[in-house]
Amino acid sequence: MGEAGFLGATIKGYGCAGISDVGNGLITREVEKIDSGYRSALSVQSSLSMGAIYDFGTEELKERLLPEMAKGNILGCFGLTEPNHGSDPGSMETTARLDPTREGVYLLSGSKTWITNSPIADVLVVWAKLDGKIRGFLVERARCPPGTLETPAIKNKTGLRASITGMIHMDNVPVPKENLFPDVEGLKGPFACLNNARYGIAWGTMGALEDCIERAREYALSRKQFKGNPLARYQLIQKKLADALTDATFGLLACVQVGRLKHEGLIVPEMISMIKRQNCDRSLYHARCLQEIFGGNAVADEYHIGRHVANLFVAQTYEGQSDIHSLILGRAITGVQAFC
């Protein structure tokens, strides 16, 4: 993906392609047609890791890291979710404190989980509380003394099996002050990164759904039942395909419109919540319906539909589960905060 220019594609300069938000959405759509795990790796590298450095890092960090990250030579990850705090990142327990023995050094301690790319990441964007305020830090694996940083992989997943997922365990990880994001504090920083990734997810899930539609169509035309008729001849099958294609079309049109507004700087976060929620929900629903066309064959990897269903459940869950986005939209509609 680095050789193709896909990584950090919307970033201007630093060896990145500098394309439009719609163009970047089209990339994520095509990548997720192959597998959601590939798109997840793309999103974490581009929107969450490179995006955080580009938006909040110092110029020195940008010049030193972004060109190599754009090539895929340096891999990043994004540490926000914790074992005890998923949808409630404001309650994170990971802390940062000044090193009492070394000037200009912070010590990070705590754990993050369900972190894409963490077992193989060279640089880790970690959000931690410093004097009670959430701040962003860039941890460089090569600069961590033995025993301070561990990133074990999470094994035996039923979804996103093509994506490497792990944890981040930190025990007084030293981070130089130059690797502190200087001008952002609170959840504004991580949420800005997440909104960019959520935008990509809205596009990507439509790509996965399109692949489900095409595979279900081909299967329905070739599989013959009841007097040698193809499954595609039956009304129930055609309705499943028609419903799925309709939502895929509407979902893509919504992504295009939001992408154009995003590129013009006219977007509000609730727009991204709307398309992330809707497209994840509808892609998962239709993938499950289309799965029924395959009957028992759906459980076999060679037909791929079951893989997409498992992946789309994860896509619906991470970076804001659909119910959380419902509350974000509800707050915008009513003006009443429903997060307790």
Automatic annotation (TrEMBL):
The keyword Oxidoreductase applies. Signal peptide: none annotated. Its cofactor is FAD. Residues 77-173 form the Acyl-CoA oxidase/dehydrogenase middle domain. Its main location: mitochondrion. GO terms for biological process: fatty acid beta-oxidation using acyl-CoA dehydrogenase; fatty-acyl-CoA biosynthetic process. InterPro entries: Acyl-CoA_Oxase/DH_mid-dom, Acyl-CoA_Oxase/DH_mid-dom_sf, AcylCo_DH-like_C, AcylCo_DH/oxidase_C, AcylCoA_DH/ox_N, AcylCoA_DH/ox_N_sf, AcylCoA_DH/oxidase_NM_dom_sf, Glutaryl-CoA_DH_mitochondrial. Residues 192-333 form the Acyl-CoA dehydrogenase/oxidase C-terminal domain. This is Glutaryl-CoA dehydrogenase. Belongs to the acyl-CoA dehydrogenase family. GO terms for molecular function: fatty-acyl-CoA binding; flavin adenine dinucleotide binding; glutaryl-CoA dehydrogenase activity. The keyword Zinc-finger does not apply.
